[in-house]
Design a protein that fits this description.
Largest sheet of chain B: 5 strands, mixed
Helix content of chain B: 10-25%
CATH topology of chain A: Cytochrome-c3 Hydrogenase, chain B
Shape of chain B: extended
CATH superfamily of chain A: Cytochrome-c3 Hydrogenase, chain B
Shape of chain A: globular
Structural class of chain B: alpha/beta
Number of strands of chain B: 7
CATH architecture of chain A: Orthogonal Bundle
Order of helices and strands of chain A: EEEEHHHHHHHHHHHHHEEEHHHH
Number of domains of chain A: 1
CATH topology of one domain in chain B: Beta Polymerase, domain 2
CATH architecture of one domain in chain B: 2-Layer Sandwich
Radius of gyration of chain A: 23 Å
Number of helices of chain B: 7
Order of helices and strands of chain B: HEEHEHEEEHEHHH
Oligomer: heterodimer
Helix content of chain A: 40-55%
Strand content of chain A: 5-15%
Radius of gyration of chain B: 29 Å
Number of strands of chain A: 7
Strand order of the largest sheet of chain B: 1-2-5-4-3
Strand content of chain B: 15-25%
Structural class of chain A: alpha+beta
Amino acid sequence: MAQTPNRLAPFYENLAFERESNRMIINFGPQHPSAHGQLNLVLELEGEEIVRSVPNIGFLHRGMEKMAENMIYNEFLPTTDRMDYIAATSNNHAFALAVEKLIGVEAPRRAQAIRVVLLELNRMASHLFFLATHALDVGAMSMMLYPFREREYILDLMEEYCGARLTHSAIRIGGVPLDFTPEWIKMCEEFLDHMPEQIEMYDKLLKENRIWCMRLEEVGNISPELADSWALSGPMLRGSGIKWDIRKEEPYEIYDEIDFDIPVAETTDCYGRYRLHIEEMWQSIRIIRQALEIYRDTPPELMAHAPEFISAPKEQMMTQNYSLMQHFVLVTQGMRPPKGEVYVATESPKGELGFFIASDGGPYPYRVKVRAPSFYHCGILEDLLLGVQLADVVTIIGSTNIVFGEIDR
Amino acid sequence: MFRPYQPKDDVQKKPYYTDRFLVVPELPKEPITEERLAADVAELEKSIGIKESYMMAGRAVVIIQPQENKAALALLRSRGFGQLMELSAIDYLAQSGEFEIFYELLSIERRQRIRVKCRIQEKESIESVSDLWRAANWQEREMYDMFGIIANNHPNLKRILMPDDWHDYPLRKTYPLEGDEFAQWYEVDKIYGKEFRDVIGPENRDPARIDRYDTKRFARLGHEVQYGAEPKEEPTPIQYQDQRRPVLNDDLDPAKSKVLDKRK
């Protein structure tokens, strides 16, 4: 097993046999199509059974926390798009919410309603992506096409709203930059009317599909104790039968005014987590409908009024000298939040996305720590894959719904 | 000749202008009034002793001695804080020669959160809590990777995000944003050897750089030429270069393609 690599005999890590114990070590990834990004999983096999699994991460590490310390708060916001790039708005929102907590500002009501609509659209996009890639990994090839078609609809909606399809930056610190147009709302409602039929079609394709059930049921069981120990969150935690959703328990924005349920899966397996994602899409539709209802009778302000931290609206800036001066200072020097530390957790599509910000009163954050849910959902592969058959590895990785932009940051 | 000395205590970006009379406001520290959290803090105070406790921005914060971290966290865990959501450090080496380590705990049954903090000297290490929570395994590895803080009795304390042979700890304030010399030549040194630094040259990090007369990389959009040929001013027409006309592309004429007005 032990190799001493040198230039003449490089390190062959792809395959290693140890004849005495008949154990095989294989590398899963980082170029494996089902590794969901750059995951290198070193698996030790006893026959077809996995006896040790070591996830190696860091192939996509861009040092975002270091970058954050060298940027003003507003500059860092577009960078957060690149973490969970499947649902970029939820990252923007988590960061903006943390900074808002630090500076003691609350977004206006209309901005909150818009945020909730965008967040839930992103949640649906992320869950659709999960469904498509998970099904493709497991072998339901045609299933991949249908969720991607509906995800395209959501990307079009995002493009119509903010101009970007993938890296939205659709949320600002203190509010949102743009209002919905009547046409956008009409498009969004059309989408919401179109969606139930599609979700029912996914159910017809997968819910009682014999192969799908055989591949997913009783695979990748996570006990509640293990879920707690690995600090799981989101669908992974609810998939272990623990009812915990930050939108309900520590409500932010207007989630406390919205009526929705938290689906929980008691089966703790991959099938339960798949069902959870479907159920959450139904809940997202409910939430968006209610949020659009709330949006209709809100005053038109989009950005909070906090001249010390947030630029004035454009009209004011172009007509009033002091607003323009303040805007100039905020853009060139950046806002200076008070000294202190905040940790704000939000429910992103993957789980608890939290930003810890330590400020020393300067325009650059002193320390930003991103609590990415996928980091823990990847870490649990160390324990979850033990005793599993090699063929189930892809199913389990797919069901954790990890995104490497977020794990490596 | 000696290189001019530059202090490396904190090479992070600094604000270029700060008002001389600026008084930095602070988030207020309030006493912990919530009953169950106050009971936790009283219990901690009784059994192991704490340095300070307060509420900041709605979060209970307890500051403890670094030697007591495991006992304190085990106590909180037994009182319902079942999840360790986050664990990391803050570099205060330039100010006081210390790291601040924070633990964010969550109790699902009590629906509460608490933050435990402690400070250690640069050369000190801290006791690992990875046998209380499995999540701490990776969190402490990341803390070690980024700050070089050693967690004693950790089962597998090695780098997690950076390569194993990386030099220095990237999130320390003394580490420059664009990387030190080792970082800048990492791939060249590793793949070719140090003697090839001059041959290969430094990495170009300007994402907006376009070499207008680069004929090797086809960088002049619309004026592409063959590899190594002289650059030319007349535009290269966009058409299928392959005269054999592959079957699949046979019918594709961009001028005739139709764009739907409305989504189906």
